[in-house]
Specification:
It is a single chain. The protein has 301 residues and is an alpha/beta fold. It folds into 3 domains: 60 residues, no CATH class; 143 residues, Rossmann fold (3-Layer(aba) Sandwich); 73 residues, Beta-grasp domain (Ubiquitin-like (UB roll)), CATH 3.10.20.30. The protein is 33% helix and 21% strand. The protein has 9 helices and 11 strands. A hairpin with a 2-residue loop joins strand 2 and strand 3. Helix 1 packs antiparallel against helix 2 and helix 2 packs antiparallel against helix 3. The longest helix is centred in the N-terminal third of the chain and has 24 residues. The chain starts with 6 loop residues before the first helix and ends with a strand.
Length: 301
């Protein structure tokens, strides 16, 4: 511990000591460097920390090239997956924390996120996997995650960042949603909206003085997947709160098979409620085409 170390540095050093993974060690070292004493007597300390950080970064890079360190380790792609991308300190972690159950570390320190962070977003009973990718300009950024994503949520603080990020995503075929983070500092949301609209971007502006952005963004995220939700129910009971996720124009038979393989052959009667029905509790056949938010009830032989 250096002489005259203030509490913030001491706390950062303790976090570094208990860090387990190489990525965590690097993250904590960055924090230690940012809060290290600035007086002349601490020059050697700062040099040692920077040297250690450089060695760890080189070790991490070698591990990546050899395949020993994979940032995607343990990430299983769900039916609907969106990746959050952007420059450092753009608000990616803040957005993930507000939309999902994840608890990422939110900090003004650059490159705080050193590995992908997974969260699940609830959308009317539907679970959507959101993953925060480390800063797109950092060594921790995972190109593979972005290139294979269904949807990309591009978080920016400045309009000129959009095209810079898009150039780095040329290999991705994902649908894109621009999230203009207008929390800090406040900008004229009307001017920003007019500019984004003129370029025909699919976008949402989030700010302290704009209400409804949370639901608007969740709607856009779900709609980007082009899926339909089908709720099931048992006779005499209320519909399930957790829908089945299917492709557009899916039929009754596909729902039965998704519930249980071979179930379609055992179906004696099917009734539906919702957008695709002519009237509530309509009897339909296995080839009936369903629509989003339909409710379906099976009676088996």
């Amino acid at each position: 511990m250096p002489i005259n170390a203030h509490p913030e540095y001491i706390a950062a050093e303790k976090e570094y000591i208990v860090a387990k993974s190489l990525g965590e060690k690097i993250e904590k070292l960055r924090k230690m460097i940012s809060v290290a004493p600035s007086h002349k007597g601490a020059e050697n300390l700062r040099a040692q920390l920077r040297g250690r950080l450089k060695r760890f970064q080189e070790k991490l890079e070698k591990g990546r090239k050899s395949g020993k360190h994979s940032s995607k380790l343990g990430i299983k792609k769900e039916d609907m997956q969106a990746i959050i991308v952007g420059f450092t300190n753009s608000g990616k972690s803040m957005l993930l924390s507000k939309l999902t159950n994840a608890k990422p570390r939110i900090s003004d320190i650059k490159f705080t996120t050193t590995s992908p962070i997974v969260g699940m977003m609830d959308y009317f009973g539907t679970s959507i996997q959101l993953i925060e990718n480390p800063a797109i300009e950092s060594e921790y950024y995972d190109k593979g995650l972005s290139n294979t994503a269904d949807t990309l949520i591009i978080v920016v603080r400045e309009l000129n960042e959009i095209e810079k990020i898009k150039k780095l995503l040329e290999k991705s075929k994902a649908k894109q949603i621009i999230v203009f983070n207008n929390f800090y500092p406040e900008k004229d949301a009307r001017k920003v909206s007019a500019t984004l609209s003129s370029k025909r971007y699919n976008f949402v502006i989030i700010s302290n003085d704009k209400t409804g952005w949370y639901d608007e963004l969740k709607d856009k995220i779900f709609q980007s997947f082009d899926k339909i939700r089908i709720y099931t129910k048992e006779p005499g009971k209320a519909p399930s709160k957790n829908p089945l996720i299917l492709e557009p124009k899916a039929n009754v038979e596909e729902v039965a098979e998704k519930i249980l393989k071979g179930l379609a052959k055992k179906v004696k009667e099917t009734r539906i409620w919702g957008p695709s029905s002519k009237f509530p509790s309509q009897k339909v056949g296995l080839k009936h085409e369903l629509k989003d938010k339909d409710i379906i009830e099976f009676k088996t032989k």
